[in-house]
Amino acid sequence: MKRLFALIALFLLVGARDPILVPEVSQHEIQVRQGFTGTELLLFGAILDPDGSRAGRDYDIVVVLKGPTQAIRLREKQKIAGIWVNAQSSDFRSAPSFFAVASSRPIAKIVDERTAAIFELGLNWLQLSPIGAIDPAQQQRFTAGLVDLRKRQGLYSESARGVRISEQVLYQARIALPSSVQIGRYTAETFAIRDGQVIASATADVEVRKLGFERFVALFAQEQALLYGLLAVAVSVSMGWLAGRLFVLV
Predict the structure, then answer these.
(1) How far is CA 34 from CA 31, 182, 186, 233, 234, in A?
(2) Confidence of residue 217 (pLDDT cuts 50, 70, 90)
(3) Would you tell me how many other CB atoms lie within 10 Å of the CB of residue 171?
(4) Contact between 154 and 179 (Cβ < 8 Å)
(5) What is d(CA 83, CA 2) in angstroms, rounded to the nearest whole number?
(6) Judging by DSSP bridges, how do beta strands 197-210 and 29-32 pair with one another?
(7) Cβ distance 132 to 114 under 8 Å?
(8) pLDDT for 167-179, tens place per residue?
């Protein structure tokens, strides 16, 4: 909170002309240790006119928390002769590992579809960058499938009234991060919107780090992928052999 007030004072001193949006997060670093069960991130801030007064007419706030992007391949299952097999697949160049949107009102009541698509203000306007030529209907089906899958995993979410605004000055939103969140840098983008137009925006960063043995394993898997794979296979074979020996002895 002290940092928030300091940033507001700084913007007032430099003589900004546009509305001032100052975002802050409760944690700039989330440490993932053994037994980590997830956490809740508080995003809050203020919006003021350049003279330091409240920002005049009513406005809406939309907060978008996005995790590191990754290239993925999504496969569709198809039942053939009573057996589920892999059928069609689609590749995406930049699917965010985590994506959460919270707004003071439903997005459709705040902006039009064009503005929502430009700023990715919701799961319906998430830009996944499919790779290669793909039929639009098929692309929509795979996109919907990916969004549904990650919603069930707690990695994608949307809250139409997840932002609370006090006195048209202060706002806050709470976003849950599950235990399966990916490590890396997350960006919290905040948009102040009035009459369907984005009048101010700002970004804050959150770093998710693994500590202890989990960090060692994660770094080893990234830096020595081949050796990590061979060790994983060796451990699996050893455990299978040991289980077989114990079964024989019993």
Answers:
(1) 10, 15, 21, 23, 24
(2) low
(3) 24
(4) no
(5) 60
(6) parallel
(7) no
(8) 878 899 999 999 8
